[in-house]
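Researcher: Final request for today, and then I'll write up notes for the group meeting. The sequence and the SMILES for adenosine-5'-triphosphate follow.
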Amino acid sequence: MRGGYTWRVYTACSVGGMSIGHTLLGLLESGPRHGYDLKRAFDERFGHDRPLAYGQVYSTMARLLKNGLVEVEGIEPGGGPERKRYAITDAGITDVEAWLAQPERPEPYLQTTLYTKVVLALLTGRSAADLLDTQRAEHLRLMRELTRRKSSDDLADQLICDHALFHLEADLRWLELTAARLDQLAAAVTR
Amino acid sequence: MTTEPLLQATDVRKSYGRTAALDGADLTVRAGEVVAVMGPSGSGKSTLLHCLAGIVRADSGELRYRGQDLTAMSDGRRSALRRSDFGFVFQFGQLVPELTCLENVAIPLRLAGERRRAAEAKAAAWLERLEVADVAGQRPGEVSGGQGQRVAVARALVAGPRVIFADEPTGALDSLNGERVMRLLTDAAHDTGAAVVLVTHEARVAAYSDREIVVRDGKSRDTERVS
Ligand SMILES: Nc1ncnc2c1ncn2[C@@H]1O[C@H](COP(=O)(O)OP(=O)(O)OP(=O)(O)O)[C@@H](O)[C@H]1O
Ligand SMILES: [Mg+2]
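Model: Predicted protein-adenosine-5'-triphosphate complex:
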């Protein structure tokens, strides 16, 4: 059995399970952007009811800069961090790649991260189907573990396992539906 | 695991008219393992199972069972092999309606030439094990869906098969009964050392397997395969 999550690269903080750093990096892959532009792109695609605070963008970009994952390509006159134009570095691309390739930890409400990964994969021309396959395998691994655990006679423990299993099953049904609609999704996302 | 594969399908193709039901499917099954075959409706899961079990002849590709080439076998030898080595469970029990549940379970043994009394004694033990001893004297039409599936599982296991082919065995059951049938099926298979090829599109059913393969558009990859 594979160990799973010992290897994780944390380059940025997570909000609601979503790594803002990786998402901003991913958004930079299509070309350099200014801070304010990044925030807008993020909010539009992934912000939903929770737009990024400017402070969050700049602290995240400062960390990415420090870690060599982005570089400053130019500064517009007027100053201020929102005027900086960021470009992703090779190390940054590798980091996004690793993040997209690393399956998310299966948990009841991971759709947001997974949705982000699917959209980013589609936006960056990577295989969203592979990503979904990897995730399905990861979910099934956990479901097997919980199913094995259910063979004990502890009914209360079976109950909590079933709770988890039904949530995981719901995730998987979403994965399957998404996998079946990837072509349409790709068209909609890159429009 | 490095055990010699029991059943190995390589690049199997099967068309029905212009429909390519299987378009290059791989699958390896080792002794005693439970392999789930997953995938969307119409992707070719049942066709793969039918080819593996020698029920349907593949157009091309390699199908080996314990070193023997299934595609080169005569129809007579293949059905003999099915009777001696394979057990089957389908979505709807496919029990013989005129016979009692006990007689249904005894069929594989009777076909193998066992005498009625010995066969029915073994059948009774399997019904007991699957917790449906009380319906032994009833006909399939008189039992519930869950009971009928347990009877079908007993029939699949009674003759000591090396492989059980199960196509959506819980498809017609509610989740509680489905789970019970899966538990009984996989426990019995593990105890007897039988391998199970389990076709299902339900993740909670697939979670009873040791590993899964996914069929998409008639194609499947098996990452576990030994080359
Ligand atoms: N006997 C047949 N004659 C003609 N076409 C067939 C036959 N059996 C299967 N097909 C076709 O082959 C394809 C694969 O069918 P198959 O039954 O293997 O799918 P499946 O994955 O088992 O689907 P489901 O989950 O709905 O049972 C389908 O397009 C189906 O219509
Ligand atoms: Mg089918």
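Model: The mean pLDDT of chain B is 92. Chain B has one domain: 5-226.
Researcher: Thanks, that's everything.
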